[in-house]
Amino acid sequence: MADFLVITPLRRDGTLHPSGTVIEMDPTQAAELLATGVLKAPPVRAAEGSDHTAETPVSAAISRLDPDNPSHWTRDGKPRIEALSAILGRSVSGGERNKAWRRR
Q: In a 3-state reduction of DSSP, which class is residue 83?
């Protein structure tokens, strides 16, 4: 499960979610809503008091993957590009994924 920002009011499971609210949803289920602009991944912020630079959006998306969900991971243990793309609402390249994955 991951958090998504509602851009256009969304009725889901009988509940109306107004623009600007954050809802929790499976990234693979959110993919179509991300693609159509109804949802987007909320911005990633650095922790207060942190001396480190903010994580990249791809590394933040990796941290939002479910470690127990096989659709989020390849057979060799890397994050699936499709799952990262669904979270970010844009295409993620293998190079972007690999760079973020090496930083961890």
A: helix
